[in-house]
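Study this pair:
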Amino acid sequence: MSTPDSTIDPGGGSLSDGHRPSDRIVTALAEEKGVDVLDVDPLLDTIDLDAVDDLLGDGSGAADSSVRLSFVVQGCRVVASGDGSVTVRSLEGPTGNGR
């Protein structure tokens, strides 16, 4: 049985509304871990968030939608795409948060 994951897609809030890819990653990570976004450990020690935003663009279509970035942080695998989608899956099993 696969573990549930937290996914944010472009239709769930446009990146052009001011949501940077790095913000969407933090939001999806918080949802997967079942915590508030303010309780997510800072990612700056793990990944350069400005580089993530530069690589994935602003969701306006200027970024290559075939670009995918995948990394592991805080016990979760994060996959973010140039089309604005972000998926976070716990590597530690179900989180019990019903997602």
In short: Residues 9-17, 95-99 have pLDDT under 50 and may be disordered. The two ends are 14 Å apart (CA to CA).
